[in-house]
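ok trying again, last paste got cut off:
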Amino acid sequence: MTPPTFDPALPPTVHVYERTQVVIKVFTEDGASKAVVVDESMTAAMVCHLLAIKNHWEESPHWQLVERLGDLSVERVLEDHENVVDVHNSWPRDNKNVFVFKKNKKKYDLMEQPLVSLMMAHGVEHLRMSTCLNVRMYVLVWLKV
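nice, full thing came through this time. structure:
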């Protein structure tokens, strides 16, 4: 964050901070792209909300921003609270990295349906019902804390 600037029109106790803004190019799954101005305080969830509005798509918590590292052929889903400018600034100068905006209906399955989610992940035959109930109780207690 840049140091505060002092505006003589404002009272002396009010400080105006200039925020760093970065223009990022975000691709969709069909290959289209949008340029978005992101400031240093914006999280991945905020950018997803902005992109859903900009593309005239339904707003949903299931949208996610994916960091695709071109040189490594690896994708990583940004968590909702991650700072997008920090991620962008961590990339080397000349790279093939891109952000991809996509919808993942299973994004919150573990929290919404922990029993079903764990049974699907490990196979029903591998989990005893008591194990599932213990895990479910643990998740419920964790959510309440």
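cool. The chain is about 30% helix and 20% strand. The beta strands are 21-28, 33-39, 63-69, 74-77, 98-103.
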